Amino acid sequence: MNFKKMSEKLGLEEDEYLELVELFIETSKSDLKNLQSAINNKNIEMIAGIAHSLKGAAMNLGLDYFLELAKSIEKTASDGELEETAKAAEIFQERLDNSGDF
C-alpha cells in the first residue's frame, strides 16, 4: 500500500495518515475481540454494529481490503451464516496481526 499516495488523497500529511492507520489497527483488534464474543453468543445485532464500525473506519482510510472483509462479516451475519462470519473475522484478525504487510 502506498501510504504517501493515500495520505495525499485524503488531504493529510503522511505521518498523520500513518497515525490514523495505527489507531485503526489497535481499535480493530479490540473490536474483533468483542466481535468474537458476539459471534459466540449469536448476537447478530452486536455483530452488525461492530462490522458497521469497522466498515466505516476502513472506508474513511481507503483500506479496501479491510472494507471488503467488514462487509463480508456484516453480510454473513445478517444471513445467519455465523461460521462464515467467524472465518471472515479470523482473516481480518490475521491481516491486522501482520499489519506490516499493508
Order of helices and strands: HHHHH
> Main beta sheet, described?
none
Q: Provide the low-confidence segments as ranges.
A: none
In the CATH hierarchy, the architecture is: Up-down Bundle
Question: How many beta strands in the DSSP annotation?
Answer: 0
Principal-axis shape equals elongated
Task: Estimate the helix proportion, in percent.
Answer: over 70%
Task: Please name the CATH topology.
Answer: Four Helix Bundle (Hemerythrin (Met), subunit A)
Average pLDDT level: 94
CATH superfamily heading: HPT domain
Number of helices: 5
Roughly what fraction of the amino acids lie in strands? under 5%
CATH class value? Mainly Alpha
Structural class: mainly alpha
Distance between the termini: 6 Å
Molecular structure report:
- With 102 residues, the chain is mostly helical.
- It has one domain: HPT domain (Four Helix Bundle (Hemerythrin (Met), subunit A), Up-down Bundle).
- Helix content is 81%, strand content 0%.
- It has helices spanning 3-9, 14-40, 44-61, 64-78, 82-97.
- The longest helix is centred in the N-terminal third of the chain and has 27 residues, at 14-40.
- The chain is elongated, with a radius of gyration of 14 Å.
- The protein starts with a helix and ends in a 5-residue tail after the last helix.
- 25% of the residues are buried.
- The model has no long low-confidence stretch (mean pLDDT 94).
Question: How would you summarize what this structure contains?
Answer:
With 102 residues, the chain is mainly alpha-helical.
